[in-house]
Amino acid sequence: MENLQFIFDTDRRPNRLRTVNSQLTRLIIRYHEEGYTEDFFINSATNRLYLLRDQHSCFPYFRMNIVSQCYDSLTKGYKYIHIIETTCGLKGLLISCDIQFKN
Length: 103
Hints:
By secondary structure, the chain is an alpha+beta fold.
């Protein structure tokens, strides 16, 4: 078994990562406090919205708005935060690498 060594740039990288993560965390907490407590995802094969905790529940009718964007230095891309309200009253967040559009 090899010994692995991890080298970090202590002057820049950890602080920048903490800043990005804390900004994203702050936004998620803020929207949770506003009542957007569910987590959603869009199945790329079906292009339908599902509840993350119950992947059998599909929501054909919902309202979705993009509310924020954060740069994620781990994936070297942007994360887009969408708020979602379903017709049955569920409210939550969708965090993705792309801006999502409902067809």
